[in-house]
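Dear colleague,

Thank you for sharing your sequence with our group. We've completed the structure prediction you requested, and as agreed, I am returning the results in plain text so they can be pasted directly into your records. Please verify that the sequence below matches your submission; if there's any discrepancy, let me know and we will rerun it promptly.
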Amino acid sequence: MAPRPAKPPRKKGVSIYRPFIFGSIAKIIDPASRPANINTDHTHQWTIYVRPCPNHPDLSYFIKKISFKLHETYTNSLRTVEAPPFEVTETGWGEFEVQIKLYFVPEANEKPQTIWHHLKLHPYGEKAEEQREKKEPVVSECYEEVVFNEPVETFYDLLTSSGGPVGRGKGSKGSKQASMGGKKAGQEERVAELPFNGTYSQKEEGKELDRLGQAIKTVELMVKEERRKLEEREKTLADLKSEDGSTVKAR
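Please find the predicted structure tokens below.
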């Protein structure tokens, strides 16, 4: 049996992260300028994307391709984009979860990483009504980072030649791995990771919690109102029964 090929050497004690933004933008299709080839049921045009952060280099130096798994009702629901801009534009009428898979360049020697994005077509929050009236585009995006712990040396050279943050040492200050607590005994070595701890993600989570809180209050008010109506109906029914009984006795 031929010996297994040696694993490429890695940069020990080094952690490198690369930030990016993923999300979507959707707008209502104007009936006056509606293309003839669009499904008559479709109400919105949307674009889902993965983009570099402002003032950062293009992602293609470490990402080979990105696949977007759309809802199964779309023809060719798995869309793969092999060059920037990494985005897919479509039309539709409903919201759904999109699976986004990042494939790294061969030099990375890393497995693909998957993230999820909820495609939003309708505005939410305090200014939702104003956005609807103005027909403003609905933007939903998150900041994220992919972390390469002890990257392959050739990939390390590729990443550092393009600039960007580098955290040195497991547990050293400024290391992304240190912020995740380092590697525990018996745990497999972690390489490319998506920790989902970006500030935009936390902001979106806060907004979602606010929306849920408001929704709960609305439901509580609706329940209270329905109870009031029910009590009124029961009182009216009791009065009618009382009047009916009085009429019978009078006879």
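Summary note from our side: Strands lie at 14-28, 44-51, 63-69, 78-81, 86-92, 97-104, 113-118, 138-149, 166-168, 192-193.

Kind regards,
the structure core
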